[in-house]
Every structure is written in structure tokens, then in C-alpha cells.
Queue: 4 jobs
Job 1
Amino acid sequence: MTMTDAAATPPGTDPPGTPDATSSTAMPSSAQSVVAADMAEMVASFAHLDAVDMPLTLPYRAAWADTEAGR
Amino acid sequence: MNDLVDASPAPEVPVLDLSILDAGQRLRTGSLTATALLDAVLGRARQSEPAIHAYASLAEDAARAQAAVADEAFRAGQDLGPMQGIPVGVKDIFDVRDVPTRCGSRARDAVMPATDDATVVARLRRQGAVFTGKTVTQEFAAGVVSVPARNPWDPDRIPGGSSGGSAAAVAVGSCLVALGSDTGGSIRIPASVTGTVGLKPTYGLVSKRGVFPLSWSLDTVGPIGRTVEDAAMALGSMTGIDPLDPTTAADPDAAPALAGLDMGIEGVRIGVPRGFFAERVMPDVLAAFEACLPVLAGLGGEIVEADWADAAAARGVAMVLNRVESAAVHAASLDRDGHLYGPDLRERLVAGQSVGAVDYIRALRARVAVRESMARHVAAHRLHVLVTPTLPTTALLADDLVVRHDDGDEPVGSAYTRLCQPFNATGQPAISLPMGFDRNGLPFGLQIVGRPFDEAMVCRVGNAYERAAGWVGRRPPLLLRNSSHA
């Protein structure tokens, strides 16, 4: 099979927005705090649904099978 | 960007406006060949790619060979199915035999060509589909921008993502239908901003084997097409239990997506969950959405006000599962090749790493709760489908990826996924189709959500609306500048 690169990207050049290969994997601690806070907010959004008698998982369709909607 | 459009005369391409069904009829009567259809598609790609960049790579030689095989089968009277001879774009996270799966990431620049097709690609190949090339994806399907692809309705804007190249290719006609994946909206989002139709099936309906994962328990695979009928037809060629993908599932009583497409929606109960789905939504989007409701009612649909109290929780569940599972997917390669990952993806992975095991377990259990909540909601209101806007806004400018609300700015990744993600948590089928255009000519998307394995009803409602509303069939103005056949 002959693969032809998309015409958008001349050989040897990077498309716009290509990640900087020299950048580090490390994030500033302030940025890490922001994403951690975002995740904590997401976790809090479903905290009210927590109940110790709820099983870890159910077969996917089980949640629907017992309802009129699921049949 | 408009200056980059190829000014050479456009090829004769009226066949690109054919539906899959109509193209198939012409192919079967011999008035059109798969090779001629492919020529038209590749001609369109040559015209549009300099500005739109929908493809990471085109596979012209392989596609011509596949088209020749399809034509030979037609001449021999072999009917392999509705996708025989149809040009299909493939998001570059799907394995296609002998082609590298680069996932839009420098971390996979040196990856070897795939030795096998993804199951869904193999199914389409057996049915005689013609693969035009690999379409641009956001890096590892984790995001909504899809650099370097651009939006055909305004090349200064993004095509959405992560299946942005697939949607852009369909919008311009450089394939008739394309494969996408949807973990938090990645089929519906680009469909919404490119004026195409994106169909996210029920979780498990379509095999994910050979598709690079983003989040194992949320990933779905589906088509993007020009019309609801095209999307339903393509989906029908993709579904089925796969012994190699243990998450595949089927409802033996479920009808195919195409079943009853033209039955109309008389008596169909259509839930309208406002609340969460109306908050921080731009006024012109809300106006377009409100204008849909009398159209649906005029077709015989019963509009039911049905707020769903757990929408925000469902979104939170999907977000947490997505981030944590993505962090697990990339844990080893991030350590090894992290310097090759883009900053946006690295930030997402760090977010996933910040969530502890206890909260991940809580999210898994809360997913059961939100699914039960949705099941009760649907049953209580006797709903067949729910409708919402797909996105709170239209295509954003590539150099200004923020949605500005009265109460503050929202990054594009949050804004674009917000109304889609709840239905990744519940696993329901959902489609996005055009519901109008703003004053700048940018499309809005209508999201129709169904009961699990009831893709048929989702498509039935979508098809009825599409035909009544008349938004389908428009081509981006980019093409009108150069082609009298657009």
C-alpha cells in the first residue's frame, strides 16, 4: 500500500498545534492543584448517590431489565 | 485559511450528494462504478484538504484496489451488502491492516503498520467498503479540537473532536461516511459543529477490538454520515457480538437502526430535560432547540417536560471514569514517552492520576445509580427518547477556545462535552443531527437520546425531524466558492 501524507503538512514540517517534543512531562504544581480540584468537584457531584448496600457493578442491562423502559 | 483553498477547477462530483442507499442502487444497476465514486471522493479531497486537513493520511492506491474489487464483485453479481463500493474514512485510532495507527500522537510516530483490521474495519472490508484513508483525531481521542483539522463551515474554526477529521471529511464529501469513537461526545460533538450526523450506539453494540482505547468502560464506536439514514445504514454494517471483545452485547429483541426509519413519530413520547441541559447554553442555541419542539410536535410527537435531576451526577461519573481509565491506559507510555505527548493530554492524564482508588470505586457504583435513575425517569414519563442541544455553542475559533458566559469563561473541553457526557455514563444510544444555522452560517446540533439498544427509535425520530426541518443537504460555503456541484 502506498501511503501519501495529507497535503496539509509539507515534509519536514509540523502541523499547527503539534506538541513541543522538548517539553517536559511535568506540570507546574499550581496546574496540578487546579486539575485535582476539578476532579474533586466532579467526585462531589455524585457523592449523594453513594450507598453502602449498592453493589460495585451490575451486568450492564440489569439496571434496565427491571423496569418498563428496559423491556 | 480560505486563501489555501485549491483554485483549480472542481471535478464533476454530483455523485457525492448521493445517499449510501442511492449510491448503492446506482452501483447495482451499473450506472455508477465504485471506481468512479472513489474518483469523485478523492477529487473532493484534493480540493478541500489544503484548507480542512481532515485526513492524517490518504490511502489512494489501496482504495483504488478495493474499489476495483468491489466493481468486479458487482459485475459478477455478488452483493456483499449496503457498504459495497462506498468510500469510508477511518479515524486514526482504528487499526487498518498494513497502515500505522498513529492516534494523532508523536508518541506513535514510529509505530509499525497494523497487522490486522479492527473488528469493525474487518466487517466493513468483508462487505466491500472502500477505505479512503485515516482521518485526523485529537491526540489519542482525548479532546475536542482535532488539530490540524479545521471546520469546513469556517476554516478558522475547529471541527470539534475527537473524531474531528471524520466529521470534516463527511461534511465536505471526501468520504460518504466515516468511523468515529465516542467516550464523552467525540462522535456527537464534531457532528454538531460540522452539520453532519453522528450516531453513538449503545455501549457494547459495536466491537472496540483494534480501536485504541481512551476509557475502556465508556468507549463506543459509531458512524458519522450526512444523513440519519446514512448513519443508520453504516451502523447496521458494524454491529454484532465479537468474541474478541468481551464488552460487546446485544439485545435479541432489538431492531436494527434502519428498522422503521420511515414510520414517522405519531405518538412517540419525546422527553425534554431542561435544567442541566439548558444551563450555560448560548441563547441562539436555545432558540434553535426550542424551534425544534413544534416541528417534532407537528409530526405527531408528544413533547413531555421531563427534567432529569441526576444529569450533573452522570456527567461527573463519566468525567471521573474517563480521566482515571485514560491515566491507566497511558501509565506506562507516559513514563517512557511523556515528552512526546501534547500538553493538553498530559494535563488530562495528571487529572486522572489525581483521583484515588476510593473515588474511582465510588464512580463505578454511582454509574449504576445514574443508570437506574435514568431507567426510572424514562419509565415514569413513558419516554421513547429525550432531546437536548448537543452543545451549548457552535464551532469555536481555533485561536480562542473559550466559551464566554455571563458568570465566567468555560474551556472548550468542558463546554463541548457537558451535554453529551451524561449519556456516556448511562450507556444510552444518542445521535446528533443539524437543527439549524446561526447568523454566521455555523450549524447547531440536536441530540436525540434513546433507550439502550433502541437505536431504531433514535434514528426514526431523527429521520422524521431531518426530513421535516430541511437542514440536511447543505454543503459548506467553502465548496461553493469552487464547485457548481456542491
Job 2
Amino acid sequence: MDKYVCSMCGYIYDPKQGDMDNGISPGTKFEDLPDNWKCPGCGASKEKFKKMRTQ
Amino acid sequence: MKPIEIAKDIYDVGVNDWNIRDFHGYSTYQGTSYNAFLIIDEKITLIDTVKKEFADQLLENIAKIVDPKKIDYVISNHTEMDHSGGLPRILHYIGEDKPLYCSKMGLKNLSRHFPQQWNYHGVANGEELSLGKRTLTFLETRMLHWPDSMFTYVKEDKILFSSDAFGQHYAGHEKFDDQLGDEIMFHAKKYYANILLLYSPLILKLLNNVTELGLEIDMICPDHGIIWRKDPGRIINAYAKWASQEPEQKAVVVYDTMWHSTETMAEAIAQGIVEEGVIARPIHIRSSHRSDIMTEVLDAAAVIVGSPTINNQLFPTVSDFLIYMKGLKPKNKIGAAFGSYGWSGESVKLINQELEAMKFDIIDPGVKIQYVPDQDGKNACFELGRKIGKTIKR
């Protein structure tokens, strides 16, 4: 599962961790996040995220 | 303000804004300063500028030390216009071909503030720049408090130029922590509560990083207020404490009132809290500034909010306060609502909705009283206060 990074603040969404503070359980793929999900780091919307290139 | 040597060949060439009283919604009774720093080395370097209106003063300050046209490098730690506003004047004067270093986000953000095609150099986290005897290390600090924010560290002098972090809105002839008493901690606390509170998790990470990187820090130079030279540990420890958001045994009862009825309730609630040995202040919103109320909220265990109902809505100043507080994301708070009403009485429900959205622990459905509180009404408020006080003590 790919990680995604917020282009505004650098927050990394890791599907293995999910986003528990906002009700997203671990194992949730980025694509499956609700459309109104916001970046926990800075509040930016889903469209501001980019897939991280694996090293 | 004349330039001040803060270390050998390093100067604060910034300015005092003595008269500013409203800093985008934050009350600044003691004005503020825009600090900018000049390093005299093989490459003469300017770190940050000032608000546009003070650009000429900045140039005059620099000129007292060196001909500004001899500046080789300009560093922009942060795009916000109280620090970048002087860039057009300065770069026009010293030469727009001079390199301008900023973070990668700074590159994007500066170009959305200024149309000039400057000689931008976007730096990566940890990138170094040699000035000759000294080396600058750039440390990205995204969202502290903007996406473009970064620190500049000089390892030879162990000085951290921390942009807005660790700053205070204070204008004075004092420039160092040892020149002012404990009053500076109040200004630092108000600054944290109103600007940085929501980024507390990031602040904790940053403080960890600094420890892990083994950065030795002898002096912290923020872009506002005094410089921490005697005891930089003091402000670092304060930030660790505020960022952990562990509340004191303290409550604030924040309210507005149309005919003193909600006020009567507020005072009875505060009295009940105090009865349990917990500090409590009733705070009338229209007699205060939201930024001062927020300073009290920072370390309060409970925020109790009261509003009349006007035209089925909250009294507007209460909405102002709730929205403001919501944006700052306070954690670990107990909440409850109260209000006097005439006939529809939506205020308690509306306040509870807001406090729930802020993830407060709402420990009581709240108290609403029609028109003027009688003795039973006042007792209900007093008992709510005692319940709050007991919960805080647990």
C-alpha cells in the first residue's frame, strides 16, 4: 500500500497506521479515505496529497 | 532601535513597532519587534527583513555596520509579511541578483506574495551554506507555523535563528532575557497560546529532533521580542510544558450577557468551582480581548462557556470566541455550557455542539435559566461549579 505526502506541510499518510485520531483505522488505503478527509498536519484537502515514490 | 551586537560579528538590525495594538486579531499592548540579523563574515548575510513600513529603518540600521550593498546573501526563514515585507526594498537596494535562500515551500509561497523574479535558492532540510568562518544549517520546520517556516542554525556560535518560534510580541529597549524579569514569560505564553497551540504535537516532535540531532544551543534568536541568551533552556522547557497540554487546576468561565443574567450565572459557577479549591475566573468576553482569554485557556483544565440566546443564535461575541478557540485545537479540556434565555433558549445546545466538535469532555448537559436567575437558579449554577471543581481535582 502506498504512502502519500501532503504537498503543503509534509505530513505523511501511512496506510498501515491509518489516522486513528480522526476515525480512520489502520489498513485503510489512501484511495479509500473519505473525500472530505483533511490533512491532520495542516487541514489541507485530499487533493493536495501526492503518492510517495518508494526509495 | 539601533543595531545590537548579539555575538562577535552578529547583529540584530531589526526594529521596534512600538505602536501596533492589533496583530491580525491578537492584541499587542506592548507593541512588537521585527528582528532581523546581520552576520559579518566572508559572505555578509542578512537573516529576514521587517514589515514593509520599516524597511528604510532596517537599511539605516544595517548601514551603521556595513554598506548594505555589500550584503552577499539574504535568508528568508519565513514568508509572512512582517518578516518578508522588506524584501522588495532591500533586494532592490542591494541588487536583485543577490541569492535569496528559503525553504522549498518558501520558494512557492514567496512567489505568491511578490511578483519580482528574485535569485531564489530553495534549500532542503539539513542543507548547509558556508559563509566563510561560519556555516549555516537550514532546518525545515513546516507548520511552525506556516508551510514555509524554517530555522537557521549557526553551529560555530551555537545560535539558533528560530523565525517565529520562541518569540514574544514585546517592543522594548531590552533585547535579552536577562534584561527583563519574569514578565517576558507572560508574553511568551500569550504568543504560544494564540499562534502555536494547535501545532503542539509538531512542537513536541521538533523538540525531540533537536535533542536527537544533538544541537547545542547557546542562544535562541526569534524574529519577535527578546533574545534568549542567558537561559534558552527556559523557553525550551516552557514550550515542552505548553505543548504537552497538561492543564493546571484552573477553570475559566467565559461568557457574554445582555441583561446581566448570564453574568450572574457565570459568577455563581465560578464561585462553586472556587468552593472546591480550584482557581476560577469569570471572563466577560466584551470586556476582554479574545487573545487574552486564549492565554487563560492554554493551561485551564476546564472551559465553561455561557451565552444568551439572541434570535435563536448564540450572542455573536461568543461565536467569535468559540471559533477562535476551535482553530487553536486545545486538548485535554473539560467543558460545559450555560445561559439565560427569554423563550427559545438554543444557546446551551449550540455551545455543547461546538465543544463536542472540539472533543471537550462535556461533564454536564449545562444549565439554562429563563430571564433573571432566582435563588434556585443560582444554586444550580453553584452546584455545576462544584461538580466542575471536583472533576478537575480527580
Job 3
Amino acid sequence: MASETAMAAENYEAVIGLEVHAHLATQSKLFCGCANSFGAGPNENVCPVCMAMPGVLPVLNRDAVELAIRMGLAAHCAIARESIFARKSYFYPDLPKGYQISMYERPLCVGGYVEIEANGERRRIRLVRIHMEEDAGKNIHEDGTSLVDFNRSGVPLVEIVSEPDIRSAAEAAAYLRELRALLRYTGASEARMEEGNLRCDVNVSVRPRGVEQFGTKTEIKNLNSIRFVEKAIAHEVARQIDILEAGGRIMQETHLWDPVREETRPMRSKEFANDYRYFPEPDLPPLRVTPEWIESIRVALPELPAARRERYVNALGLSRYEAAILTEEREVGDYFESVAAGLRNAKTAANWVMTEVLRVVNETGKPLAHAVPSARETGALLAMVEDGAISLNAAKTAFMAMCQSGKPAATIVRELGLAQVSDEAAIAEACDQIIETHLRKVGEYRAGRDKLFGFFVGAVMKAMGGRANPRLVNEILKRKLDQ
Amino acid sequence: MAAQRIDLETVRHVARLARLRLSSEEETRMQEDLSAVLAYVDKLNQLPTDDLEPTAQVGEAGTPLREDRITNQPETEALLANAPDRQGGFFRVPRIID
């Protein structure tokens, strides 16, 4: 049965498009001076504008426009000189005006693409558009009643709409990770899915391989982690293939992801869904953006993840995998580069950041800057490894102590007595002692039992408390035994 | 070009979208009114506009932009004052089923 399904799956191709909403990292809301902040008490960040009292007018937040343009430029979009806000009309208790101010026919950012790496392959996922819009409030459902909080009402969003270029759950995850990296590198958004400031709706269809025409698609909502996006897509693709294999038809409907049961299920279909009667927002004249403004935003953009990855691979000699991990978060890349700056080999820094640093960050759950020693101290520690002053294992011990105590690398190495003995005379003396106490084995070794060499190295290391420089022990022992 | 008369089904559809409950008399009246509006739009459609940019707004300036500053103080009580029902700082509404 399982193999039958797998074989059926081989004959189909998934066609996936994502709609991603990201909160813009402004101080205030999109059209009023209320705080754009997470975690305030209910209806604390509200005013007559974002609660749609009669007679109010929206005034657009300049920084929100700038952040949206930054993201648009980072994703290679064309920035429209003139874009138009529109009203998207529907009724829901969290939407006080009865319409959402969004962009429809004339969005701010058009086209563009995001470069992803999945399954060892680099691909471009094209974008349809990035437009600005306001968020709705939030409903909390209790027994027999619903509670409404408008703190989120009017919070600025960008909606990033991809072309249906994505072909697997893994590619969707890679695309989301790249979008998240772009949003964070540009400072457009904190892009934290768990706080709801990055949300994702997925459109999924399947078609027999080789067929040009798209199949009927379903939409999946309620996805608030990249892991859920991957699972939901995998589940939905399999569900659609099963239906088609059984001779059925896919219904165009909206599904909700149930993270507990790990399955998608159809939402109660809304009779009038998607009849939003868009029309130009009469309260807002067109948004005009000068080429000078766009250019000033472009020149202020930081190096973006794709460019950074290329540089890590081509100039620093890292693998694509290493480059991908190190560039996902801007501060991780910055930290890696500072550590690598003081070392002969960037690989040493890369390995260390990927294993030790990211492990501590993950284990403590703290931001990088608070979880680990400064890049300068970590660099100093690794320089000692490069110079042979301490072993790699000793460096690991020292690093943990540095994380806990905050003391400098040199102090920790001294306090814990981790310095490696590179004193040739001391090592030679230890070698002589071992040779004298094991004369019979020395004879066997010289008669041809090469394997015994490891025994001598071990014995010398043990005699020196494990702190002798292994390279020197090897050299000196070899010289003495072979003479 | 003859103006197309709007049918009753469409009137009911639009009324539902707007959450309006119309009596049959009102439906008939709306049908007349909406048909008249559409007839006027049809008349406008006769004008040659092929060479014109779609104009949703007049005026050259473009929308004004404001600085990104928090200028509002929390006024939860004042803003909840007219709420038909509340629970703590929340508005309370009939349970939303979905």
C-alpha cells in the first residue's frame, strides 16, 4: 500500500504558491499614531482612526512605505512610482470599518524573485507582487461569546505573493526561510512566526508530471510555523493525489491546518467568500514615490543573504551548506565574520559558530549577543587553537566556561589550566621515560610492530595529563623510536 | 446602448453582502434605483477614454505622509464607552462560528 502510494506520488507534481503577511517594524500604526507593539493589554493601542469612528481620516506612515520598498528592492521587485490603496470589503467583528485598506490593482512592488537553495539546487521563486495593507484586530473565542481586541487593527503589513513556482514542501520551507532572512536583514520586519508577525497562507494543487495545465487548488490557512507549513503541504499533496488516484475530483476550498491532529480539514465554506468589491480608497490619494527616494533606500540596503552566501563560498572557501546556515540570521553572519577576521582559516570560525555558538544559542533560547562571549573573545580562543596553545577539546571546555562566567578567553584558559604543553624539552623527557619503562615493547616496535606507535603516543599523553601538544608528541616520539 | 436592468437575484446578493435585510417592496425599489445608477454609468461608458489613465483621484500632490511617531495615548475607557457589551478591556460580541 505504502509503495503504491509512493509510486502514485512519483507520477504527480505539486504546484505551490505562498501568500506571506509580515508586520512592518514601525513604531506606530499604518494610518494613525497608535503604538505598533506586541503584548499590550486589550484595546490599549487604539484610537478613533483604527477603531473607525465616524469622520476620521487615515494618514499614511512614511516609514511603513520605506520598509515595504526596502523589502521590494531586496526581492528584486520593480517599485511603482504610483500605487493606489483600495478598500477590500467584508464583514467580520475584528474589522471595524467593514473594509480593509489594502492595495489591489496598483501595488507598490511588482514582480521580482527570491533565490532559494533546496535539495542542493539553487532556484528562483518569482514574485507576483508585494503590497501594503493594514492588519485587522484579534478575536478571542470563549464559551458562547467572542472578545475583540483592536490593538492589531491598523498595524502595517506587507503581503508577499509568490508565483506558483514552488514544487515541494521542502522548497516552500526554504522559500519562507529566505523571505524571513530578507525581512530581517532589511529591518522591514522582525518576522517572528510565533508572535504572529509572519503569517503564511498556502495554495496547493497537483498535476500529472508533464502536464502544463494547473490542477484545482486548495488554500491552507492557520500556518504559524515553517514546520507546520512543510507538514501541511506534504499532507495536502498526498491527500489530493489519493483523491485523483481514486478517480475523484479536487474541490476548490479553504482548509485549516490542525497542528494537533496533523491534518488539514475544510473550513465551513463561506457563501460569499472572495466577493470583496475592491475599489480605490477615496480617503487616500495615490501614493507617489520619487526615483530619488527609491535610490536613497537602495543605497542604504545592507549586503543581502544571497550576496553574502556567494562571498562566503567564493572568498572564504566555505561550503554552500555552511554559507546557508551562517547567513540565515544577519547577526550570526556578522558574528562569524568578526571571529573569522582574527583567524588564518575561516573554516575554523565557521565550524565553531555552527556547532558551539548555535548550540548555546538554541539551548539557552537567548539572543546571540547575550548567549555567547563577544566575537573578539571567541576569536581569541580560536586563535589559541590555531597557534597550538590549546587543543580543540580544551577550547570547548573553555568556551562553556566563558559563556557562564563572561571572563576573557586568556583568563579562563589560565584558570582551568587548559594550556597545551608545547615545551619540546618537557615532551622529550616524558617520551624518554615511557621508552625506558617499556623497553620490551620498544624492541617489538623496532622489529616491525608499527601498530605499537599509538600505544606510545597514548602513554605519553596520559603521563602529561592529556595536555601535551599531540603534533609534537608524534614528532618527538617518532624521532626517538626510529633512531 | 441600452442600459441593462439589474435582476432581483443581484439585488438580493448585494443586500446580503452589505448585511441588509430588505422587504420585497424595498427590493423592488432598490432594483429601480440601482438600475438607474447603472444606466448612468453606461452613459459614462460611451465617452471615449482609451487614451486616458484611470483616474480614481484628482490632484497632483499624492497622499501626504506622516512621521512614524507614537502620538496617541491609551484611551481604552473612552473608546469602550459606547460599546454595547464588554468584558474587561475587550469588546464582547456574539460568538463567531467558523
Job 4
Amino acid sequence: MLKKIYITFVFLVLAILFISCSTIRQINPLSKGESSLTLSIGGPITQVGKTYIPLPLLSMGYNYGILDNLSIESGLNFLSAAYGVLHLDIGANYWLFFPKKIIPGIIISPQTFILTNFTSNGFRLYPDIGLTTYWEIKQNKYVYIGIDNWFEYHSYREDGNIQKHHWLITPYLGINMGNKKWQGQAEIKWYVPNLVNNTRAIKNIGIGNYGVVGIFLGINRTFGEIKK
Amino acid sequence: MIKLKIIILFYIILICNCLNLDPFLFKGEQISEYFLDSYQGKTECSDAIDSCGPLGIQDTIRKFFLQSGTEKIAAIFLAKKKENYSNDTIILYFHGTGPHIDYYWPRTRLLYATGYSVFVIDYKGYGLSTGQPTEEGIYQDGMNALKYIYDSLGNPFVVVYAYSLGSLVGCEVILRNNFAKIIRFVLEAPIGTVESIVEDGCFLNIPGSYVTTYKGKNSEKIKTITTPLLWIHGTKDGTLNREIHGLPIWNNYHGEYGFYIKVDGAEHITCPQTIGYNNYIKCLKDFIIANANNNPFLIAK
């Protein structure tokens, strides 16, 4: 009983505050002046009762093309907002290479996550850098793999314990398909694959005893003068 | 389009800050009566009652209510029949976040097997108690239980036994007490701070205030507590991890008479049975009568 209550508590903490809380927002590059809106839902797969479900992290993002190979983006996590936590991200996507046949395209995505509940010690800022490689398997159909890197720079936690993990990695694999205006995404993430998961009360699905697997679905609508 | 944006913004503001996770920390279940020994639902240490044997004719179970703020909280006093308890030692038991006293009754019986009377309460919103639990509310419940022991049971010696999230109440009661004779403090699988639960959950240094109004900083409060302490914690506690929650409390305790039991292989709720009920009872007795140095399970600070 106690464990059940505790698990529910941690379940919701995860749902509200978990790292890397959306699909990658833009695989196909935006041209200069184009913009897109993305909606993403999903999260770490967690045991609820007798079944496993992905947590319902819901976020919305906006992307804007600055150059043909550079876009800026920002996002908002809705579930955090319901708990009075402003959970924003701002960042950019830089297409280092575009894909050519079997040679993948490469996207570098530096981001900053900002969280605050507007109290004196409630402000947090987390730098993050993502590296994605992707292949265009057909027109407007892509597969991608990548790795997200969150950095926790505090030496100590609020509870006085040492913050042991400063580099939190999340590899991911996904597909992105649709047409020029609408794109859908399905993505699987493996959160913190370097950390053992079987000492936690909450039952997440990992691989072996490591990390937490998450599933996300996303939808993306492009606006503006669509050139590609 | 502008209208739509305003409406969306309005709803975002409306839903902001309307939720927190407090109800998931202390989540009682209200019932219509206590069944105690004959309770058929799920309990912790469920075989403890068989191990302790039936209560005798010299034993008494008093069920009554205490006033706590504007609410009434249920209390049960398990003791030998007596007129006066003023020279006795009574164990005041603060249970965890489980639903009600029935769920913890086998544990209560185990404590009674030490030979000391046991006083247990249900917090507001638990069992037969009215109201809803809040952090200040459960502290108030704890203080009212202690006050009852002081006023109505003849100011006996008190051992505060706080288990799991009940350790929030135990630490606070010891800090606030300036009238009762609290001679021992036992913490079983205590919580260090509520913040630790949040931080363990998301791997990051996230303030607990993001999701809960509970503070419950036991690892800080213990710094000013000098009451003799026994800390019991399982090495496989995956609910309130021993190193994250218990150890900071232990390290910050500066009293002179401190002992711990590191229960190898025990999970959050299984310390008594992992040590063995007889050993568990003997440990408690030795700690209470200051014979801890002669018990191999008890390791001194």
C-alpha cells in the first residue's frame, strides 16, 4: 500500500519534470521564413497497476527558419504548467549536413531548459545538446537516431545529498513521415542507459536493469511559404 | 486569431498552479470501524499477530477520539489493565502513509510484545479520523497524542517510534515537545526530506516545492535532537533509500546515545521480519532499557 502511494507520487514527479520531454521537433529543415508548430505526447514507460503505459508528457513547440539550415525553436510543457511550474525550452537546430542517399544528414540542437515556480530557490536552467543523424528514405519520410545530453551542474541537491549525475544522456530512434505541411513522428528514447534502474521504487521499463525506455508521438505543421 | 490566442492564454493561466502532489504523500482511507486482530485486509508484517499470540485478559484495547484542531482523530491505546500509567513507559507509534491503523495493527502488536504499552493514532483523514491531512495538521495530530498521554495517562515516560513517512511527525513532535518525558526515539525507514523523493524521481536537482507543499526536512531537524536515537533501515529499501534518506539523518544526529540496525536484505516494509520478530523485539527492549551495548544487532554511533 505504502509502495503504491509512493509510486504514484514518483510517477507524477516523473510526468511533470522528466528530462527530454518531447520528440525532436524538426527533422526536415525549415527554409528561411518558414515556421512550424509541433505537439508531442508520451514519456517513460511506467507500470501502472498491471499494465505499462508511457507517461503523458504533453508539450508544444514552435520553430522558425532563420536560414535554410538553421532554425530556432521554443517549447512549453503543459503538465508542468498545471503544477505552477513554468517549463520552457529555447534553442536552435543547425543542419550541419543534409542527407545524400546513404550518407545521413546531421543536426546539432543546442537548447536551454528553463524551469521555475517563481520562488526564491525555484529557478533552474539546464543546458542540453542533441546530435541527430537522419536519412531520407523516401520523399518527406525520414528515419533518425540521435543522442540528447542534459547537464546538471549543481554539486549538491536541495536535500543536501551529493548530486551524483551531471551528464544525463538519452539516445533516441525515430521515424518522421508525412507531406510538406503535415509531419507525424514516432520516437523511442532510452533515458540514462548508464544508470541502474532496479533500485528505484517506480517500475519503469529499461533495457536489462539499465535506464528507462520512453515512447513519444508527435505532430508537426509547417506554415509559411513552403519551398521544399 | 487574437481572440483565440487570448482564450488559450486565459486557460493556460487558469490551469497553472492549481495542482500539487500532496494528496499522494499522505493518503488515508476512511473506514467505519477498526477490526484490529480480526482485520482481513492487507497489512504489513501480517504474520506478526500469530507470532505474538492472542491478547490476554490482563490486556486492554481502548479506542477513543482526540480533538485535533477542528477535527477528531482516532486513537488506540493497547496496554495492561491499570489505573495509573505514570511510572510506565509508553510507546507512541506514528505510522506511515498506509491507509489506517488496521493496516499497521500487526506492527502495533509487535511493539506491544516488547512489554510496553502502545499508543497509536490515525492522522486526519485516516481510519476513523475526520478531516484531511496536511503537513501542519499531522504535526498537530502528533502533538495532541503526546498531550493526551501527558494529561490523561499520568505523564509516563514516552518512546516515540516513527515509521516511514510517520518520521515527519516523530521528528517534529520531539522538537516541539516541552512538557512530556520523551526518553527514546526510534526511526524505522525514515524519510530524509520530501525533496529527496522528488530528486530521485527525476535525476535532477529539482526543488520539492515544484510539486508539493510538504517540506519535512528530517535530516535538518535531527541536528537539534539529542533524545537517544535508534535508526533501523533495510539495505534494499527501494522506497526510501537508506543512503539517500536514512544516512543523512544518522550523520546529522549529534546525541550521545545513538544506535542503528543495518538490516541486510530488508526492503522498506520488511525490517522486523528480516531481523526476525524475536530479535526485533529484543533490540527494541535493549535500546529502551539502555542495554544496547550488549546487543550485537545494535551498532553504536
